[in-house]
């Protein structure tokens, strides 16, 4: 693997030296051993399904598999041809992205797609004598039809998801960085929120904390409402021009990426006022259910155990709006679990937890008024790693119901 230069940058204080070294790389990269692990796993999938080639796709900026396979994030289109023991070929857009793709993609013949990348990929597969091609990633229908007309196609997205659910030690390190960047965003939001700011300005506070040290935004959902007369119970996905006022509560769910590895942290805080009894009770319920759920998380934990641990939501007279537990890190994965009053699907997932899965626990209780515009809710939660005997938070941010202006 070629050497990439390092540069000095600001570093979140929570990061230990091993992680700081990753943050300082010019363009961060996984080790040769980590890529070999991933490629061996893909080869096993190909063998299982009788595929002679694998096509790994980012199309119209959707799909993260090429980044997992090559290191290149697939800024527009990326069509990666993989066969064990051979150098990968990637047709990609745009032409001005070629220099960086050739620098970042590991052991890949990077070629310009000339605005016909799927056609060039089909030609290359034909030249190689491909017959049965496994496909990972999304393709628009017109491109899929070109591929399907030339080869026997096997859809392997479910296999890819399975490979992403359990993380390697290196991947967990990258998630720790994503968690630290997310924590930095939440710290900046709590410390910097003032009456008179609007939700757009709050979002700018969040991003200012990590963009300068290599983070990018996955989400920052920020909700601002009056505790005495709430108009929302879950933070919206787009910021509004609503101004922060004394007596408000701010609820937030945010994820900052370290490349393809985000944290996820959820917290709530008041503005120039103590929490009202309703919000104190909501928050205490959320904290108690969080503790109950993480107490049962471990390698081998069943979905029924996790669902049973959420029962404090209903005992307190609340329900949930969002999923209470979900897999996370490289995608939004099973197990996806709600609570008994708002299940996440028609049935619980048929699985048990495994060591080095990463999940978000986010018991965000909401009140149950028939008129949704009068409901209240809070945000509490974070990303955790499943261990043999329990779980480990990947975040360092304290828990609690905070106050705007507080340094946490």
The oligomeric status of these chains comes to single chain
Number of domains: 2
Structural class: alpha+beta
Alpha carbon gyration radius: 23 Å
Main sheet makeup: 10 strands, mixed
Q: Mean pLDDT, as a whole number?
A: 95
SSE ordering: HHEHEEHEHEHEHHHEEEEHHHEEEEEEEE
Instruction: Name the poorly predicted regions.
Output: 1-9
The count of strands amounts to 18
**CATH-derived topology of the largest domain:** Creatine Amidinohydrolase
The N- and C-terminal alpha carbons lie at a distance of 40 Å
Question: For the record, what is the CATH homologous superfamily label of the largest domain?
Answer: Creatinase/methionine aminopeptidase superfamily
Strand content: 15-25%
In the CATH scheme, the class of the largest domain would be Alpha Beta
Please tally the helical runs, counting DSSP H or I stretches of 4 or more residues: 12
In one word, what is the shape?
globular
Helical fraction: 25-40%
- What is the correct CATH architecture of the largest domain? Alpha-Beta Complex
Question: Topology, pairings included?
Answer:
Elements: H1 17-23, H2 32-49, E1 53-58, H3 65-70, E2 77-82, E3 88-93, H4 98-104, E4 108-112, H5 117-127, E5 132-136, H6 141-150, E6 152-155, H7 157-165, H8 169-192, H9 199-208, E7 216-226, E8 248-258, E9 261-262, E10 265-270, H10 277-296, H11 303-309, H12 312-315, E11 319-320, E12 325-328, E13 332-337, E14 358-361, E15 365-366, E16 381-386, E17 391-393, E18 401-403
Parallel strand pairs: 1-5, 3-4, 5-6, 10-18
Antiparallel strand pairs: 1-2, 2-3, 7-8, 8-9, 8-10, 10-16, 11-15, 12-13, 12-14, 14-16, 16-17
Helix pairs in contact: 5-6, 8-9, 10-11
